[in-house]
Amino acid sequence: MQSPLLSIVIPAYNAQNYLGDCLNSILMQDFEDYQVVIIDDGSIDNTQKICRAFESSHSGKIIYYRQENKGPLLARLRGLDEASGRYVAFVDSDDMLHHLSLLQVADAIARLMPDMLMFDMSQHESFGKSGPRLFDTDCDLSVIAKEQVVTKLYSTHLLNSPWCKVFKKSIVDDAASSLGKFAYYSSSEDYLMMMAFIDVCTTFAYLRSPLYYYRNTPGSLSHSFSLEKAEQSLVVRNIALNNASKWAAKFGSKDIYRGACVGAYATFSGIIESAALNCEDASEVFNLVRKSDCFNRSVIEGPRDIAVRVDRLVECKLLKQNRFLLLKMLSIVFFVAKQVKKNLFSA
């Protein structure tokens, strides 16, 4: 039996609220040469029941696997391993695809055969409005140079996640095997995957169309805190600095490393804010950040000519000076101010 063109991997954990919508959005596609691989990562709600029902009614099209809870990274890697398509896409269980997504993706693959194809997302279920454009181009389908992709990866958050992308499976399989040592990471694991996949890909294409609906569900460092996740975020950010340094040297571009340093400031700010909001004594967390290699490389020894948000600059300056009490107070003030601004503009 010939392999399908596309395998769609869906990691699912306690996904009963939205998984049905996600699967239906795929099954209603105007394209047939695909399979769906669901990895149930030890769900304790009705996810298993939903998956079994869809698998039973769409035999051969939907393949379901259940495993003990191992975290999102291992769930995605298991899905990649089980996939038989020539290309693989990752879809989160609470998101949806436009009904023309796979048809447009298949057409782009046929025309350019890239190692990695990127497209835009929408935060509107009707797909009526695109989110931020990944690249500034007037063409519906464009070849993108690797230097542009790497610069975008380290200077923005737009390429940090595997959704809104399709990968040539034979290219990324080897890169996936190198991620095993981060198996149980539950923070920044998407970013680890994207750095590894982009490293091994050579040819890139961009489809300027919002084909993926991203559902913005609650859950961020601002609302919860875990010391383990903070440590993981710092490790990943240091890896990002290493990789950015490598690509900056290869392409002769200072912007790549500058972008990675700006991203590091954002990571530090997120950890500081979360600790300030959730820890009675945040000094242990503040010290963890201050003594990290990535803080030293980006804040203490990093480039001076980078544009960083004022609140993040202030937080990192206070952290560098060990002014922890003032840092905690100001971080809470900054958080409240951002919430007020968000509520005003969303009203």
UniProtKB/TrEMBL annotation:
Gene3D superfamilies: Spore Coat Polysaccharide Biosynthesis Protein SpsA, Chain A
Keywords assigned by UniProt, alphabetized: Transferase
Superkingdom of the source species: Bacteria
Gene Ontology MF terms: transferase activity
Domain Glycosyltransferase 2-like: 7-172
Record-linked PANTHER family: GLYCOSYLTRANSFERASE
Protein name as annotated: Glycosyltransferase
Provenance organism: Gordonibacter urolithinfaciens
